[in-house]
Write a structure and sequence with these properties.
323 residues, alpha+beta, Deoxyribonuclease I, Chain A
Length: 323
């Protein structure tokens, strides 16, 4: 009768040790990703990149399994510092500004294309009053509702009957706005906004999720291309949307060197269930070095499977004046 509890104890400890080691390996994956070129193709690079995204799950699993194992073997507590790796292995964040009022506020929200109710988004926009809003997964019905938002008279809408509709809303005049489609016909928006007498470049984007190695490679290539284009234009630049990549992904490997940094934090944005506690941060606002970060983070549940993001920015480098 006494052997059975010991058998269960050994069973639990063995499984906890195995899971702790697997979680530790997962936390170290971004190190491997950082060594891979962003344009690495093939199944192995794709699978490593997919596994990199789940850093918060690995951190929680490591803490739980290590604590269980430490009940019998205290030296396993030496693994606990690895749980802090997600903060250190993520792509760099935009440099912070001095405290104060932001110049430009940018929001991005994936509203889930089957959703027809614009009211949660409208309430959030009324509360936060962003200057520029990127809306992802815009259906034709949702686009009609967006067109009624009086606070955003300048807009470029590209609705679709699938998850790749997209919209750009602005309080400030659009000097130019174009829909650009990739080889698969998926759109993104390239625009220039007249803001406080200056020209700002904005891209609204939603690359294909990395469901296969070729999609992984195409997403990375798009992000790098947008970063190069922003740098070549020499304008204050913003790239925002559901980028289907986390800050630990190979998609971010080249962006810092090309002049784009994330402004939002590491809080999960998808899936939104349970406040994103088991999710990953794939919705972003990226900014060029012209900007400094006043604040950035995740917004409330708007009834979508994604949580929105918001970035408050200050312009600190000279920018071309509106012609």
């Amino acid at each position: 009768m006494t052997a059975e509890p010991f058998a269960w104890r050994d069973f639990v400890l063995r499984r906890a040790r195995i899971l702790a080691l697997l979680c530790a390996a997962g936390l170290l994956l971004p190190v491997a990703c950082a060594l891979l070129p962003a344009q690495s193709g093939g199944t192995l690079a794709w699978l490593i990149d997919l596994a990199c995204h789940w850093q918060w799950l690995y951190a929680a699993g490591l803490v739980a399994c290590t604590l269980v194992t430490a009940l019998a073997f205290r030296w396993w507590l030496l693994l606990l510092p690895l749980a802090a790796l997600p903060w250190f292995s993520a792509a760099p964040r935009l440099a912070a500004a001095e405290p104060g009022t932001p110049d430009l506020v940018v929001a991005s929200a994936n509203v889930q294309w089957q959703t027809g109710d614009v009211r949660p988004l409208a309430r959030w926009l009324a509360d936060e009053a962003p200057d520029v809003v990127v809306v992802i997964e815009v259906s034709p019905a949702f686009a009609q509702e967006l067109a009624r938002l009086a606070a955003y008279p300048h807009r470029h809408l590209v609705p679709r009957e699938d998850p790749f509709g997209i919209a750009l809303l602005s309080r400030h005049p659009l000097l130019a706005a174009a829909t650009v489609r990739d080889a698969d016909g998926l759109p993104h928006i390239e625009a220039r906004i007249a803001w406080q007498g200056r020209v700002v470049s904005v891209r609204a984007a939603h690359p294909m999720p990395p469901l296969a190695a070729e999609h992984h490679l195409a997403r990375n290539a798009k992000l790098a291309h947008w970063a190069r284009a922003a740098a070549a234009a020499r304008l204050p630049a913003i790239v925002a949307g559901d980028l289907n990549a986390t800050p630990w992904s190979t998609a971010f490997n080249e962006l810092d060197g090309l002049g784009l940094r994330r402004t939002t934090g590491l809080a999960p944005t998808w899936p939104a269930a349970l406040g994103g506690v088991v999710g990953i941060p794939i919705d972003h606002v990226l900014a060029s070095p012209h900007w400094r970060l006043v604040a950035g983070g995740v917004g409330p549940d708007l009834g979508s499977d994604h949580l929105p993001v918001l970035a408050r920015l200050r312009l600190t480098l000279p920018a071309p004046a509106v012609p």
